[in-house]
Amino acid sequence: MSLPVLSVASELYPLVKTGGLADVAGALPVALAAEGVAMRSLLPGYPRVLAALQGARPVLELGWMFGGPARLLAAEAHGLDLLVLDAPHLYDRPGTPYAGPDGDWADNPQRFAALAQAAARLGFGELPGFQPAVVHAHDWQAGLAPAYLHYWAGGRRRPGTVMTVHNLAFQGQCDVSLLAELGLPPEALSIHGVEYYQSIGFLKAGLKLADRITTVSPSYAAEIRTEAGGMGLAGLLRDRAGAMAGILNGIDTAVWNPADDPALAAAFSAATLDARAANRAALRAALGLADDPRAPVLGIVSRLSWQKGMDAVLAALPTLLSLGMRLAVLGAGDRDLEAGFRAAAEAHPGQVGLFLGYDEALAHRIQAGCDALLVPSRFEPCGLTQLCALRYGALPVVARSGGLADTVVDANEMALAEGWGTGFVFNEASAEALQGALGRVATLWQDQDAWRRLQRNAMGSDVSWTRPARHYAALYRDVAQG
């Protein structure tokens, strides 16, 4: 019999996406089916979600939630079994799931408390015919779900709970005056509950009260237990180290498959690497890069932020250009960094190509057309873009942090001699360290036989969800039995 699990997330690919959380929430249910886990996914009813659903049907009236009526809709889409929180007063808005034209929505605490409350009510069996054995909450937006299941139990049996941290930097905090409005009892306001530095901490609540905690790579699980990486939560995470596990993400290898990707100019595989040249030419043409087969094309598919080390890329740009390299950039983020990349593209036409924003098809084309992908993150819980790069034969150039360190094998001298390596790993997201890595890239580019060997190694890496799904299924069964 399949194990019933409820996944709770604020975004889910392909219905709504702002980052890697959506990719994970969308891919994991499909991968878990092979492991005997029947996962239903709960997400907010944003306009784009409701517009994408066909045949959605009301299954549970939730009553009045934070200023208006709410209900649950059930639907199936893209192979996913969905429950959608239909509350127009909370979610029927323009902009991203979290912000409008003027910044974050002021009622985000209520909007995501509603999501967590709906998850708790499902956990207690309010939807006839569905009783999850485990509720799996993703990131701060779902962080109160374990809290509601803890404080609302009142002697009732509750499901097991798992809290996954995709990025500890985003914690979700609000004023303690909202405690009663959010449906939390007075005793919840303590260090053993939801209180976090004289505020209510959504992520802190989940980390404290969930039965188990996962992060999206083993190295990140270790990093966030240090004062340097813990962002104010290191002590709590050290206390709960016995309940933590680092499980690497995978990617959807059906969506990310260079052998039949409809976004590409030409399909290719590790056995037909020569066909990759057509994608390289198409990328240069799309972003206005000069044609020079002697010049490696480096790619960036990233949020333009300090976390992602994009300031280090700008600082290292003179070295990159002096080595004859081209740079193809897709991303958006901090205004200063956007302005820096825009100025670089204007000052170096034919050498720096830029698309500000996000375009899923272009992301695929960059992975297929660049020779190496830059991922110089200062911290990276897992990272998905380097996994896509491995799959597409774009050698990742990564800082030694979190999941980047766990997924890319450095092509150092010994590795090259033994035929190992899948990319280039450098020690820190500084301009100096990145410049050193670029020098290594330029040197190896001169040996095309060695470069091809690394590409084949990279494309042979298992970046699928098969292994992570096996770990999650074992974790769910352990939690459900507890």
Automatic annotation (TrEMBL):
InterPro entries found in the cross-reference section: Glyco_trans_1, GS/SS, Starch_synth_cat_dom
Organism: Roseomonas haemaphysalidis
HAMAP family: Glycogen_synth
Pathway(s) the chain acts in: Glycan biosynthesis; glycogen biosynthesis
Recorded family membership: Belongs to the glycosyltransferase 1 family. Bacterial/plant glycogen synthase subfamily.
Record-linked Gene3D superfamilies: Glycogen Phosphorylase B
Signal peptide (residue range): none
Keyword Acetylation: no
Lineage: superkingdom: Bacteria
One Pfam family linked to the record: Glyco_transf_5
SUPFAM superfamilies reported for this sequence: UDP-Glycosyltransferase/glycogen phosphorylase
Keywords for the protein's UniProt record, in alphabetical order: Glycogen biosynthesis, Glycosyltransferase, Transferase
Entry EC no(s): 2.4.1.21
Binding positions for ADP-alpha-D-glucose per the UniProt entry: 17
Starch synthase catalytic domain span: 5-238
Role: Synthesizes alpha-1,4-glucan chains using ADP-glucose.
Protein name: Glycogen synthase
Catalysis: reaction(s): [(1->4)-alpha-D-glucosyl](n) + ADP-alpha-D-glucose = [(1->4)-alpha-D-glucosyl](n+1) + ADP + H(+)
Enzyme class: transferase
Glycosyl transferase family domain residues: 294-452
Gene transcribed to yield this protein: glgA
Lineage of the organism: Bacteria, Pseudomonadati, Pseudomonadota, Alphaproteobacteria, Acetobacterales
